[in-house]
Structure formats: C-alpha cells, structure tokens
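Handoff note, outgoing to incoming analyst
You'll be picking up this chain. Sequence as last confirmed:
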Amino acid sequence: MTRKTVRIAMNGVTGRMGHRQHLVRSILALREQGGLDLGDGTVLWPEPVLVGRREHALRALAEQHGLEHFSTDLDAVLADPAVDIYFDAQVTAAREDALKKAIAAGKHLYTEKPTATGLDAALGLARLARDAGVKHGVVQDKLFLPGLLKLKRLIDGGFFGRVLSVRGEFGYWVFEGDWQPAQRPSWNYRAEDGGGIVVDMFPHWEYVLHELFGRVRTVQALTATHIPRRWDERAKPYDATADDAAYGVFELDGGIIAQINSSWAVRVHRDELVEFQVDGTEGSAVAGLRGCRVQHRGATPKPVWNPDLPATHSFRDQWQEIPDNQGPDGYDNGFKAQWELFLKHVYADAPYRWDLLAGARGVQLAELGLKSSAEGRRLDVPEIEL
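Most recent structure output, in case you need it:
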C-alpha cells in the first residue's frame, strides 16, 4: 500500500457542525480507520489545516485533537501548493467570497450548504468552478441517513407502486436563551446575518425530494417568526428578524405532492426529529433519521370513523420495521460517507453528482420559498443549468 497525504483546508470547523460532523466524525474518523483505501493500492491520509478568524479557538482545537496545522490567514493557506482541497463550513454570508478565492487558487471545493445567499451567486460559483476545471461537491448529508437509505431501497424495489404524496415533519423547540441556553447559534435567527429556517432547510428538502422522488416543479410556502425575541450567547436580548418556521407545499415530477413543515418552535411528538411519510398505491412508509416502518397494501387495516367509541388498538403497531441489512458494522456516519465519495471523486475520478449546480438548486428553492411566502402565491421552479 502507498500512503498519499492529502492536505485539506477546513474553514469554519470551530462551529458546532463543522467541528462535530466534518472534523471529528469524518476527517479524524478516516484517520482513525487508517485512511481511505482507493482500491488501487493507494490509501489517502487526510491532513486537516484548520482555518478561521479566532486563533485561540483554532489553537485549542488543534491541541485537543493532536493536529499541527492551523491559520487565521486564508489567503496564505490557499497559496500553499501542498493544500489540495478547500472545505467551507462558515456562516453563509462569508462563504461565497471564500469559495471564489479557493477556485482562483485552483483548489478542489467541498462545501456546506447553502452555497451562496442567492441563486445568481450560487450559479456564478458553479460556472467559475467549471471554467477553472476544479472538482466540487456540496454536502447533502440527509441522503446518507440510515432511514432515508432504507426508504431509497423501498423506492428502488418498487414497494410503493405509484407514489402519491410525501409528508415531512422536521424540527424541535430551540430555547429562547433567557432561562435556558439556546441549542443553536443566535445568527440563525437574524436575517441580516444569513439566518432563517427556509435558507437552512429548503436546500435540504430540495435534494431529498429531487433524489428520491423527482424534481420540484412548484413551491408554495408560508413562513413565520413565532418567537420574535431571543437571547444571544452573552445572554443579551435581540430581535429575531429571520423566520423560525416554514410550512411548504411542493409539486414534484409525476404529480407527487410533498408537504413539509419545518420549525424551531415545535415540541417533538414523533419518534425522530425528522420524519417523512410516503404514501403510494401499493404501500406506505414512515422514515426518520435511522428507522423506517412500512405498511403494505395487503396488510392495510380498514379504519372506520366513529368518534363515539375509543380506539381499541395502536395504529403504530400495525406497521412493520425495515431491517438494517447492512452487515455487522451497520450504517456509517452520513457526513463521513459523503466525504469518502468526494475524496474518491477527486483522487480516483469516481462519479459524483452532488456538485455546485445541485447546491444551486437548493439555493433556488429557498429563494423561491421566501418569495412565495412574501407574495402569498404558488411559484414555478424553473429548471436551471450552467
């Protein structure tokens, strides 16, 4: 085996998602397993270069994980010919300029979503990367969740017959920050800082719907700021200017109707923090982060509406759990699984379709969702291309 060291500039890994999912559970996890085997006698050894604005935070993170390289000078890191890949997990408002610099420096790109604050900018990044000849990928982690992988297996196997509808419920109660600390950073609730649940979650819903069921044709959304006053990380009150809930209806290819509620002001009364119910002519399924339950046409009960009598059975018990069928190791972390695919794309030319154009579709849907809510009407979602 030949070990090839791959230096990856990782910008924004002092944040919660960048640290936990991308640095610890993806890149460091790859190192713990001995690197990534490309199958041709080469093992990739990822060497992260931590990048950010706060030197003390970067130093502490590097010391915590035994890493050597960190810097507050993004330009200097991008000028280093030993750095092959630039990864971005910053706040959205800072992402576009950093990605442009990385493209100009000839680095391959892997980035969190949304890729930009608007569709024109997102398409501009995709065109720049194409013209520069660099490889590029966008994080679309929900596709690699065990629950959605099981759902995809059902779809590919023809379990549903003709799919009729998709119902999604996502969210949880994010504390206001006054009497209990908030679980999400305060910028998420300030529109001027790129916050808002539509900007955050509609790009996720675009790729989930697109990959599993078909392209989104129309969107009709209603947004709300249910909690108008919150407290930040220093316990100071601030006005929440971004939407914290969104109620969307999407028409997909083939006439499939999807309804997805997203909220940071909802208390969870479901088995998982996100669940999708898919109903088809031959069967139905409910998929979450990890689990997936089904009810086939031949095993569907025959409910009768009678509000005068109490229910004598549990509707949940009438569904069957889908087994993992993944072998002794089970499912890998979804972020790590996609990192592996992207690294194989860069270094072994493996196919990869979750690129900056796919990321632009997510930005487009968020943009149209906000416009739909502001104008109170359903909007077409045009097909985009470079």
